[in-house]
Design a protein that fits this description.
By secondary structure, this protein is of the alpha/beta class. It is built from eleven helices and nine strands. Helices cover about 35% and strands about 15% of the residues. The structure holds N-carbamoyl-L-aspartate. The site of N-carbamoyl-L-aspartate has 10 residues, from helix 2 and helix 6.
Length: about 300
């Protein structure tokens, strides 16, 4: 399978075979990280982040370093020429002449596609507005597979399904694994209709509800998300839905014993910290899985495997 020089922009561009191949590669790195410590020696990864990030940024940096490569970073937007009015294509044109691959995070949907059009080196979408976040999906799938909860899984996607890019990417990939998907959101934050129609067209199994309590006993995976405050055009609209779901140990009493709770993080108040102590909580491990998965993505797009 050839990933060399490929952009990773959306899960919609990947086949199930390609996803499985990436996950299998990640598993190799997970089991034997030492064996690959020189794989990307002499290569440079550029991090171009126009929005805040902790996990995506730091885990790509860690992944690159574990493979013996170097990382350059645009740093804070205010400290770069973007503050002088430089446009995205010019920034990407320049950065792509310095680096072997670029991870881009940007507040606008479609920004990574635009970047990929001007970049001769692979562009990895690290989140574009309310659009997509494919590398998060790959680590989500990796986590689910490791927990034996992927093929035919019953999963609830909970929270901000309108603006949340992680769920927009995840829902496409889940259909490859015959998942039974329940969307849990208030009307105002429901999954965009075009995505739902797309998923139904490709044979996806989806139901919608706004009642979290009712779905908890039914599912194998509870995928919680943060209400994306920064994407609301009107702060009053945010206030109406803020804190709408809060997962507590009490709510979990009706859950299956082997159910798992995932969250791309950061969380705000949608998961009570007391839940962290339950055996179902897998979100910190999920974040940790970002390392081998991103090691796999980097090695594949840089053609090192
Ligand atoms: C997510 C994002 O940036 O979309 N964070 C992440 O990459 N783990 C989720 C979020 O910000 O809510």
């Amino acid at each position: 399978m050839n990933f060399k020089n490929r952009d990773i922009l959306s899960t919609r561009d990947l086949t199930r075979e390609e996803i499985d191949y990436i996950l299998n590669t990640a598993e190799k790195f997970d089991k034997n990280p030492q064996e690959f410590s020189d794989l990307l020696k002499g290569r440079i990864l550029a991090l171009v982040f126009y929005e805040p990030s902790t996990r995506t940024r730091i885990s790509f940096e860690t992944a690159m370093k574990k493979l013996g490569g170097e990382v350059i970073s645009l740093g804070a937007v205010e400290a770069s020429s973007i503050a002088k009015g430089e446009n995205l294509s010019d920034t990407i044109r320049i950065v792509s002449s310095y680096a072997d691959a670029i991870v881009l995070r940007h507040p606008k949907d479609g920004a990574s596609k635009l970047a990929a059009e001007v970049s001769p080196v692979p562009v990895i979408n690290g989140g574009d507005g309310a659009g997509h976040h494919p590398t998060q999906t790959l680590l989500d799938l990796y986590t689910m597979r490791k927990e034996n909860k992927l093929e035919g899984v019953r999963i609830a996607l909970v929270g901000d399904l309108k603006y949340g890019r992680t769920v927009h990417s995840l829902i496409y990939a889940l259909t490859f694994y015959s998942a039974k998907i329940t969307l849990v959101a208030p009307e105002e934050l429901s999954m965009p209709r075009d995505i739902i129609e797309d998923i139904k067209r490709i044979g996806g199994d989806i139901e919608e509800t706004s009642d979290l309590k009712e779905v908890i006993p039914e599912v194998d995976v509870l995928y919680m998300t943060r209400i994306q405050k920064e994407r609301f055009p009107d702060p009053n609209e945010y206030r109406k839905v803020a804190g709408i779901y809060r997962l507590t140990p009490e709510l979990l009493e009706s859950a299956k014993e082997d159910m798992i709770i995932m969250h791309p993080l950061p969380r705000v108040d949608e998961i009570d910290p007391r839940v962290d102590e339950t055996p179902q909580a897998k979100y910190f491990e999920q974040a940790k899985n970002g390392i081998p998965v991103r090691m796999a993505i980097l090695s594949l797009v840089m053609g090192a495997l």
